[in-house]
Design goal:
215 residues, mainly alpha, Four Helix Bundle (Hemerythrin (Met), subunit A)
Length: 215
């Protein structure tokens, strides 16, 4: 009987102590700590997700720039071939009025403008590529730029030797060797003529640089 009463007292005292112990725990602070851990975990996961997304976006952007660089290099190549096409159709009226040279100049000016437009597009993409690859990317575009410049010079010389820019009565150096050298640039005689090979090699420089970023 006394043992039972004693046990009850112990139980009550233990329960009281337990209540005191629980009541002394700073539950509000623990709750704040748990909340902070949850927020920190969420932020960490969010940061990881954002980093992954940014890497994917950066990779996609690189791929897009690389793809467009090669594509527009091909467009410049096509425009060069169109410019060098030896076949042209002069308007009947210009021929009848003896304005063949003026008609030819107009046709080549239109071809050159189309080529320059394609080159400007490629140059714009080269600036985008520079954002990712800095100066490393510049050399692959240089050969194409040089060929466009060479064609512009060849076009001017072509018509200068025909007397288009010469003053009346002035002498023009249009010796056969000079004309032949100019025609090798102006006219595409085959897909593997000397200038065509230079064009193919220039485009290949772009292909080689961006190939690893496309596959």
């Amino acid at each position: 009987m006394y043992g039972t009463a004693y046990n009850r007292i112990l139980c009550k005292n233990g329960e009281a102590k337990l209540r005191i112990a629980f009541s002394s725990i700073p539950w509000s602070q623990i709750k704040d700590v748990i909340s902070s851990i949850g927020v920190l975990g969420t932020l960490t996961l969010g940061t990881i997700g954002l980093t992954t997304w940014w890497r994917q976006l950066r990779g996609t952007s690189k791929y897009d720039v690389a793809r467009r660089a090669v594509l527009h290099a091909y467009k410049v190549q096509d425009a060069i071939q169109a410019f060098r096409n030896p076949m042209m159709s002069l308007p009947k009226k210009d021929v009848e009025e003896g304005r063949e040279l003026q008609a030819e100049m107009r046709i080549y000016e239109e071809r050159m403008q189309a080529l320059v437009d394609r080159w400007i597009e490629l140059r714009t993409i080269s600036r985008e590529a520079r954002v990712f690859w800095r100066e490393e990317v510049d050399p692959c575009f240089k050969p194409i730029e040089d060929l466009v410049r060479e064609l512009r010079g060849a076009k001017w010389l072509h018509f200068w030797m025909k007397g288009a820019y010469a003053a009346l009565g002035s002498m023009v150096d249009n010796n056969p060797a000079r004309v032949a050298a100019n025609e090798k640039v102006m006219y595409q005689t085959s897909e593997d003529d000397e200038f065509s090979k230079k064009v193919n090699a220039a485009v290949q420089q772009v292909e080689l640089f961006f190939d690893k970023h496309i596959k």
